[in-house]
Design goal:
Blueprint (H helix, E strand, L loop, with lengths): L25 E6 L8 H4 L7 H15 L3 E6 L27 E5 L11 H7 L4 E7 L1 H14 L3 E10 L3 E2 L5 E2 L1 H12 L5 E3 L1 H8 L3 H4 L11
Parallel strand pairs: 1-2, 1-4, 2-3, 4-5, 5-8
Antiparallel strand pairs: 6-7
Helix pairs in contact: 2-6, 4-5
Length: 223
């Protein structure tokens, strides 16, 4: 487990610079990009409408470069859940047409507690770390980042390639999705992960043309 870093420490510091980072040695881990999360009646109000397009941009780069690509799927054990295998929402969103190098199936928050064993797979490939994106920011994405770091992997957390939903606190007051995302970033950065943007990652790959351009995908990225 990493040593706790004071929020006032220079180690917590500003956003990370990726100048010397070789992203070919990082697996892109796409967490739970499933159709169930389009059900606003079930989940409530979401944030970051650019999330899916940003995930699609990253997936396209990793697939074209033949870098390590991991899709994570949540198989809920609750029959009434839209993420249950019997539900149409269990399927991946339509823009995820690439073939991953690994499909991890889980029923808990962390992608490292699924099958096959993600930690072992990363070590076999001698990868330096992971880039985390997907749904939702403060649940399965954040948990995957925390566990990944604790297992010794470097974690880059693509905050703008995640989204979450408003949530009621124990006092009954609503915490907005944007607030939850900001707190996730503050919790992770400098201790469990390095918070990065999609633009920073694409710039590091040399594909700046994708930063502001639309990704060609089949159908809407929100399907």
């Amino acid at each position: 487990m990493n040593e706790v870093v004071s929020p006032n420490s220079p180690q917590a510091g500003p956003r990370v610079r990726l100048d010397s980072t070789d992203l070919s040695r990082f697996a892109l881990v796409v967490v739970d990009a499933q159709r169930a999360f389009d059900d606003a009646d079930y989940w409530g109000r979401r944030n970051n409408p650019d999330c899916e397009a940003n995930i699609a941009r990253l997936v396209r780069v990793w697939a074209e470069r033949q870098w390590s690509l991991v899709f994570v799927r949540h198989d809920s054990r609750a029959p009434a859940s839209p993420l249950h295998p019997s539900s149409p929402g269990h399927q991946f969103k339509s823009f995820l047409t690439a073939e991953p190098d690994l499909l991890v199936v889980k029923s808990v928050n962390s992608a490292f507690h699924g099958s096959p064993n993600l930690d072992g797979w990363l070590r076999e490939r001698k990868l330096e770390g992971i880039v985390v994106c997907g749904i939702t920011t403060n649940h399965c994405c954040e948990t995957t980042a925390r566990v990944g770091d604790n297992l010794g992997h470097r974690v880059l957390f693509a905050l703008d390639a995640t989204h979450t939903f408003d949530r009621a606190g124990p006092d009954g007051r609503t915490i907005t999705a944007d607030e939850l995302s900001r707190v996730t970033a503050a919790n992770l950065h400098g201790e469990f992960a390095e918070i990065v943007s999609t633009a920073e990652l694409l710039s590091q790959t040399g594909l700046r043309r994708l930063i502001s351009s639309e990704v060609e995908v089949l159908g809407s990225t929100n399907d």
